[in-house]
Amino acid sequence: MFDRYEAGEQAILVHIDFREEGEREDLVELEMLVSSAGVKAVSTVTGSRSSPHPKYFVGSGKAEEIAQQVSLFEADVIIFNHALSPGQERNLEKLCQCRVLDRTSLILDIFAQRARTHEGKLQVELAQLRHLSTRLIRGWTHLERQKGGIGLRGPGETQLETDRRLLRERIKAILRRLDKVAKQREQGRRARQRNEVPTVSLVGYTNAGKSTLFNRLTRADVYAADQLFATLDPTLRKIELADVGNTILADTVGFIRHLPHDLVAAFKATLEETREADILLHVVDCSDERHEDNMREVESVLTEIDADEVPQLIVMNKIDAVEGREPKIVYNDEGVATHVYLSAQNDLGIDLLFSALTQRLAGAMVTKHLALPPTAGKLRSTLYALNCIEHEVFDDAGGWNIDVRMTAIDWERLLKQQGEVIQTFIAS
Description:
Keywords: Cytoplasm, GTP-binding, Hydrolase, Magnesium, Metal-binding, Nucleotide-binding. InterPro entries: EFG_III/V, G_HFLX_dom, GTP-bd, GTP-bd_M, GTPase_HflX, GTPase_HflX_N, GTPase_HflX_N_sf, P-loop_NTPase. Its main location: cytoplasm. Belongs to the TRAFAC class OBG-HflX-like GTPase superfamily. HflX GTPase family. By secondary structure, this protein is α/β, with parallel strands linked by helices. 39% of the residues lie in helices and 21% in strands. The protein is built from 13 helices and 14 strands. It has helices at residues 27-36, 60-73, 86-96, 103-114, 118-132, 159-194, 210-218, 261-266, 268-275, 291-304, 350-362, 377-385, 408-418, and strands at residues 10-18, 40-49, 77-80, 99-101, 199-204, 235-241, 245-251, 279-285, 312-317, 328-331, 337-341, 365-372, 389-394, 400-407. A hairpin with a 5-residue loop joins strand 13 and strand 14. Helix 4 (103-114) runs antiparallel to helix 5. It is elongated. Residues 1-7 and 138-147 have low confidence and may be disordered.
């Protein structure tokens, strides 16, 4: 059903520069996307326009040039670094006698190759179906007439109408299944919230090094590669932070310029982990000269999924590729850690990130003096389990005078568990 192509195919790349900044794409990024899809680029056609041509996207002369390149290199597919309308795709295919894919179709294909979990595959299929629903007419023009003849009368549907109906039914079925997955995720999140386990979500531009950093922090073995969209399926692991305790770390899909809206919508359940996090680790490839533009793109997607209000800690990764960069923490005027410079690949500065995370998540530390009677032995055991007792002496009645120091999170949790009882033991 989908425009899938086999690895090893030869492609003609088309990149047009527009005067308006918002319409511009990156040619280097297109080459990385094509490489990630397993396709070989044999030629690149570039040009500039003030606005797209309604028939071919490019001008008629440039379209003829593309057709000549296809014939010269015997290319299997033309890949545009832009979003094309269904009509433009159809016209180009007719002229060049070759399949045409736009940037959105290319990204969808990479996602389809990378999805591993049941949920990930459903999300990719949903995005593909939504994208395909606007392009059904291609290849079916000879079947636009209604069905007729013996054994075919009845529904009065054209082939196109039948396909559209089947697409709608499949989309509804996928949405129902994704809704179940979303409810299961929500149950997991509620359980973590009840236990007051903080969640840290890794976000960032694709290929910024999120999965490598995730593996360093969790000592896990999540797939990491120097290619775009190496990670699709969200992965959650538990880490231990000093003064905070158990913390959930979530690795998520990377963002990219002009991320297709169908993909954002399809991956909404996955991106919930980002929106519900206590803090975002915004991972940036500081060796990339476009890293500031990439950061703006990530902020744009975070705004789109309503996660722009979640506190962030910027992780400037890959300092080993920048001469003179050393691991360090940058603080703001209030003394709060805002940036950490490190190299996940070379294991440089990981201890600094743990330190900055602890500071950001622990918040204010609570110090209390408790006078426990002999009957409060269970509470004393709980305090020892929290590893928060700094000093303890026995009193004459057989009880304990204890000085405790713990995070505000642990103190609130203790108050909920012990009710109002613990309040009566707080000494002035």
